Amino acid sequence: MLIPSGVSLNEHYCRRWLSIQLLKELDQKLKAGDSSVVAGAQVSQFVDSDSMFLCIGLARPLSLSSTATSSVIIGFRYDKELEKTVKFARDKKIRFMTINETCERCRLTIEECSERAAPPVIYQQEQARIARRQELYQLLNSNRPAMRKTG
User: Fold this and answer.
1) How far apart are alpha carbons 17 and 19 in whole angstroms?
2) Which domain holds residue 121?
3) Does residue 149 lie within any of the structural domains?
4) Does residue 51 belong to any structural domain of this protein?
5) Alpha helix (H) ranges present in the chain?
6) pTM score of the predicted model
7) Is residue 56 part of a domain?
8) Which comes out higher in pLDDT, residue 69 or 149?
9) Which of 96, 72, 76 minimizes the C-alpha distance to 84?
10) CA count, 13 A, side-chain hemisphere, 7
11) Each residue's pLDDT tens digit, 69-112
12) Which element (helix H / strand E) includes 98?
């Protein structure tokens, strides 16, 4: 499964993704003079979805450039079969995070997500489009003459 999808240039990826968290942690370590690899795990659930993933990853400085870093994440669809196979999947030390593709597409409020990097403009546009469509549908149905039965 390719994730994220349908994002445009200039959108801000969700700051709750494990890769972003690991890169932030690595940046802090590098500032302190520590260039060791950072590893982590997270159970991620998409906003308004039942789709959950166990993500395991690492971040490290690139060997060819002292200023560049990278992260690699492997995600496994989280279900009962995964819990049977991956014995540590339910470990309480693994953080659970509700995520989305980008801030611009996310319905979470600032109270629900302090990591927001941009306003939810695409989400708001979509909600406005849905509201207009519903209003038009109601308007069309309220002005439609009743069908008469002829005998």
Assistant:
1) 5
2) 18-142
3) no
4) yes
5) 18-31, 80-85, 121-142
6) 0.77
7) yes
8) 69
9) 76
10) 17
11) 999 999 999 999 999 999 999 999 999 999 998 999 999 998 99
12) strand 95-99
